[in-house]
Design a protein that fits this description.
The chain is mostly helical. It contains 6 helices and no strands. Helix 3 (54-72) runs antiparallel to helix 4 and helix 4 packs antiparallel against helix 5 (104-127).
């Protein structure tokens, strides 16, 4: 894939993940535990990692986080989103090569757990309230459930995109 096509594809993935983030923000939380949400934008981050690479997935994630927080208009949103997102990306980047593609949901679960852990650590650091760690078990369960779902969704997205991304013709250069 040429640099231009890769950049356009990254921009498209960023726009899609931002749209998903905005849409998900309109959905009421599935349970009354602060911080629990589906994390559907991570489907795109994981797909970007599998299709384009770790650095490119980080770029998609960072641009989406900054644009989403710009739309949300909240500094705390940037802090929590960056902490959770970057920690999730780091864990997925470390584990994505350890599993076969069909087990991508495992990578997603690790990423979801890391995301929730990062946000919980940020909340405790900001509020200086260690009692917030009491949410840990609920966040762990939600991370496992949502991680499986988003991982399976990412796998289907990757398979669909692989069929649609044109292969680079070496004779066309």
């Amino acid at each position: 894939m040429s640099r231009t096509k890769k950049l356009v594809f990254m921009a498209l993935l960023t726009a899609i993940s931002l749209g998903i983030w905005v849409l998900e923000a309109q959905i009421p939380p599935p349970v009354p535990v602060p911080g629990v949400k589906l994390g559907l934008a991570s489907v795109v981050t994981l797909a970007a990692m599998a299709l384009l690479g770790r650095k490119e997935a980080l770029a998609v994630l960072l641009v989406r986080v900054f644009l989403a927080c710009l739309f949300a208009g909240s500094f705390s949103a940037i802090l929590f989103s960056l902490t959770g997102g970057v920690l999730s990306w780091a864990v997925m980047a470390l584990t994505v090569g350890l599993f076969e593609e069909r087990l991508l949901w495992v990578v997603s679960v690790f990423g979801a757990v890391a995301h929730n852990a990062g946000q919980l650590l940020a909340a405790v650091a900001v509020t200086r309230t260690p009692a917030l760690f009491a949410y840990g078990p609920a966040l762990l369960v939600s991370a496992i459930l949502t991680g499986v779902f988003t991982g399976v969704a990412a796998l289907y997205l990757i398979r669909a995109l692989k069929k649609r991304i044109p292969k680079e013709d070496p004779t066309s250069r």
